Amino acid sequence: MPARSRVRDVEDDVVDGRVQRSIRSRQRILDALVELVEEGELQPTGQQVADRAGVGLRTVFRHFEDMETLYSELRERIERELRPQIENPPVAGSFDVRLRGFARARAKAFERITMFQRSERIQRWHSPVLRDAHASFLREEKSQLLASFPELSDAPAELRHAIEVVSGFEFWDLLRSDQGIGAARAEDSLRETLRTLLLAADRR
């Protein structure tokens, strides 16, 4: 092999190694944020993230422009994880089958994202990116609700709005935190509250 080719191969290996280290470092930083939020640190600082990731603070902000960018990527990761569930609502079967499937899917998703939603609630009032992401999340929730219960399209607006709120994360969080009930009972409460409102809407 010519010397020039060997040098080029070595240089390529060095570049590839740097790229891989950069990817791993970025991943560790995002993992650190996930861990902190899951542990209940709802507004971690850049320094806390750096310490958990085992990198310097400058490294955090070399990979992420600011904390808003880091939170935005956190949201994207959670959305990718939940995407199959979000995009496949229970749309077939009897009313009771759809209701049970819907409540089960919501309970499972909301239980997974509870700490992240609480954290985002704190952050989004000063973050246009997170406010836009939250608005998109609400639209997706509504779309899934209507896909599961198409009969809602003819329901009075006041009932439809109430059902959208009850089927959303905030209602779930109130059941789990303010009411202090376990996930299984919260799912039962969600299902039966929705049953009452959906049947009321269907009778109108």
Topology readout:
Blueprint: H1 3-38, H2 46-53, H3 57-63, H4 67-87, H5 95-123, H6 128-148, H7 157-166, H8 169-176, H9 183-203
Helix pairs in contact: 1-2, 2-3, 4-5, 4-6, 5-9, 7-9, 8-9
How would you describe what is shown here?
The protein is built from nine helices and no strands. The protein folds into two domains: 1-64; 66-204, Tetracycline Repressor, domain 2 (Orthogonal Bundle), CATH 1.10.357. The radius of gyration is 22 Å and the shape is elongated. The protein is mainly α and 204 residues long. Mean pLDDT is 86; it is low at 9-15. The N and C termini lie far apart (82 Å). Helix content is 79%, strand content 0%.
Task: Sum up the structure in keywords.
about 200 residues; mainly alpha; Tetracycline Repressor, domain 2; 9 helices; elongated
State the end-to-end distance.
82 Å
| Share in β-strands | under 5%
User: What order do the SSEs take from the amino end to the carboxyl end, as H and E?
Assistant: HHHHHHHHH
The CATH architecture name of the largest domain reads Orthogonal Bundle
Uncertain segments of ≥5 residues (pLDDT<50)?
9-15
- What is the number of independent domains? 2
Radius of gyration: 22 Å
Structural class: mainly alpha
